[in-house]
Amino acid sequence: MSIRRLVIVASLSSLLGLPTTGHTQPFALTAREDRAFGSRPGTLRIGDDGVVFDTADPKHRRVWHLDDVRQFRVESSRRLVIETYRSRGWKGAGRSRTYEYATGTDIPDALVAFLLARVTRPVVTAVLPQRRTTLAPLAVAVHHEGTDTAGTLALYDDGLAFEADRDGFARYWRFSDLDAVLRQDRYRLYVAAFEGNREHVRPFLFTLKQDPPPGFYDLLWRHLNSRSTGNPAPRP
After folding, report:
1. ∠ CA 2-7-9 to the nearest 5 degrees?
2. Domain residues for 116?
3. What's the CATH code of the domain at 176?
4. Residues 128, 109 contacting (CB under 8 angstroms)
5. How many structural domains does the chain have?
6. Residues with Cβ < 8 Å from 142, sequence gap 6 or more?
7. What SS3 string covers the chain?
8. How far apart are the C-alpha atoms of 21 and 11, rounded to whole Å?
9. Beta-bridge partners for 52
10. Sequence-ordered list of residues with C-beta below 8 angstroms from that of 195, at least 6 positions apart, any chain
């Protein structure tokens, strides 16, 4: 590797807060495992090696490889749900076993960016990832029907974001995590995302407060149509 390349890699790693060894250090969060009866405090660690929940009682220590997690759901700034492949049994009516964690501090956007980069299965996040230089300057003010939440629907080169100030109501979807996006009429946009137990499809209906900027829908359709090829859509 050339000296110039080493300098570039080191600079990017420093900017993102990552080590220069190519192996991401785990994110560590004080957390409480919420249960139907009581809760259990501990430390939640997430990194390249997977997920670990350490608690005082070794019998209740949780360990998952990233590939063993069916879905990560960052439901709010301080709530993370881990859905596994294990069934809840015959009483669970075909639902997967999930583990819910309330964190002592805000979940960092760098952790969200890490999950989006490392996990190929659908990721649900109400915490927006770190801003990227590939932002396409295409956004429109919207109202999320059913929640009375106002915000902005912004199109990025790698996903679609609903940016809202209410904790737990924002969303960031990679294009691969979307089942469908339909323009119902001039001022209504329907978004269906793989979200919930066993990747159920959840609908989101947005009412646009004005016409979107020129090129918004053209770029959105290009991104959605390029999902099967894995190649990014070209800019208009």
Report:
1. 95
2. 3-125
3. 2.30.29.30
4. yes
5. 2
6. 150, 151, 152, 153, 162, 189, 206, 207, 208, 209
7. CCHHHHHHHHHHHHHHCCCCCCCCCCEEEEEEEECCCCEEEEEEEEECCEEEEEECCHHHCEEECHHHEEEEEEEECCEEEEEEEEECCHHHCCCEEEEEEEECCCCCHHHHHHHHHHCCCCEEECCCCCCCCCEEEEEEEEEECCCCEEEEEEEECCEEEEECCCCCCCEEEEHHHEEEEEEEECCEEEEEEECCHHHCEEEEEEEECCCCCCCHHHHHHHHHHCCCCCCCCCCC
8. 13
9. 45, 63
10. 73, 122, 124, 201, 202
Paired tokens of 142: 């919207």
pLDDT tens, per residue, the chain with 236 residues: 333 333 333 333 333 333 333 556 799 999 999 987 778 999 999 999 999 999 999 998 999 999 999 999 999 999 999 999 998 766 555 688 999 999 999 999 999 999 999 999 999 999 999 765 455 668 999 999 999 999 999 999 889 999 999 999 999 999 999 999 999 999 999 999 999 888 799 999 999 999 999 999 999 999 999 875 545 555 54
Which residue reads 């430390």 in tokens? Answer: 43
pLDDT value of residue 2: 38
Residue type, 115: L
Say yes or no: 110 and 181 in one domain: no
Yes or no: say if 161 and 154 are a contact pair by the CB < 8 Å rule.
Answer: yes
**In whole angstroms, what is the distance from residue 154 CA to residue 175 CA?**
13
CA angle, 10 then 15 then 20, to 5°: 30
Residue type for position 83? E
Domain boundary among 102, 125, 148: 125
